[in-house]
Design goal:
Helices cover 62% and strands 12% of the residues. By secondary structure, the chain is of the alpha+beta class. Strands 1-2 form a two-stranded antiparallel ribbon.
């Protein structure tokens, strides 16, 4: 179990309060199938989204789905596929060319949450992964506001 940060909005950025996230339980609950369905549901929404949809290249939707799914499997289940294909996640560096502000980060979390609503039945597990999604979104912000 790793320590996780619970982000709450404070002064335009998300502030942090420490909580515990149980990756093993999350992975045991969702498994590869659950993370695959979560990712597919998310990208189904992104394709239609006017704010973050244009950030994704139209020719690589399946690649984007695979990379995000593999990242989740690595992060929660210690699956090595992501590392074997892509190396260290370097999330901030990989997303630096994109303009990610508060609106984009919040939209990403919203779309992930809508997908989680379809896939994750356990409210405690859903709350933990939503905390994680909030952390990731805030970490990737590279624009003010």
């Amino acid at each position: 179990m790793r320590q996780s940060l619970n982000f709450k909005k404070e002064g335009g950025r998300l502030g942090a309060e420490r909580k515990m996230m149980n990756e093993e339980l999350i992975y045991a609950t969702l498994g590869e199938d659950g993370f695959t369905r979560l990712t597919v549901g998310f990208y189904r929404r992104v394709r239609e989204d006017d704010l973050i949809g244009p950030m994704y290249p139209n020719h690589d939707w399946s690649g984007a789905e695979e990379r995000l799914r593999d990242f989740f499997l690595f992060r929660f289940g210690a699956d090595q596929r992501y590392l074997e294909k892509r190396g260290h996640p370097r999330l901030r560096g990989r997303h630096m060319p994109l303009q990610i502000g508060e609106a984009e980060a919040e939209r990403w979390v919203k779309l992930m949450g809508e997908s989680a609503d379809e896939v994750v039945a356990d409210e405690g597990i859903r709350a933990q992964i939503m905390e994680f999604f909030g952390q990731v979104a805030d970490f990737l912000r590279n624009q003010p506001g």
